[in-house]
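Recap slide: GDSL-like lipase/acylhydrolase family protein, sequence and predicted structure.
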Amino acid sequence: MGEHGAQGFVAGPCPWSAAGFPLHDPYAGPQLDAATQFLHAHRGRVDLVTLSLWGNDANAFVASCNGNVQCIIDGAPAAIARLAGNLDNILQKLRAAAPDADLVVIGAYDVNVGAFAITGPIFTALNQAMADAAQRARAKFVNPMPVFDANGGAALCTYTLLCRDGDAHPSDAGYAVLADLAEAEL
């Protein structure tokens, strides 16, 4: 399920389809509505739901600071609290729609190579807030930071498209690692 931000997941529309790109399974409105409708329609037949809902929220927050590092540091706790609140809402609705399914929340990794001393604690706090939300919904939490940010960030070139395309999304190798981490949690 969604890779756009938690707020967009709840309010819609999907930024990918809004930009004119096709989806494998198109839907109208918020992705949360589509997901819960699907889960209700297939009750008892969905074993696993995964969520990765932090990237666009983090990007929007950082952009709102216009490059001001102190703004990012000062505003991070409130931004993390908003994301965690949205995640709580999402997970509770998904849990109600699929009470027996395994829910897995995929956490954040830090792509700010060279600034890990500043950004690492923020991403650690974000992951802790997401892990807490996951626990409240009887969901599992996967923390990719130890793998993705290994070796001072050198692993990011393998596990994301950052070095090749400037894109922080996972590469095929990164998605394989995330799947392995999720499987280990289950």
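Residues 6-149 form a domain with the Rossmann fold fold (CATH 3.40.50).
The chain has a mean pLDDT of 90.
(End of recap.)
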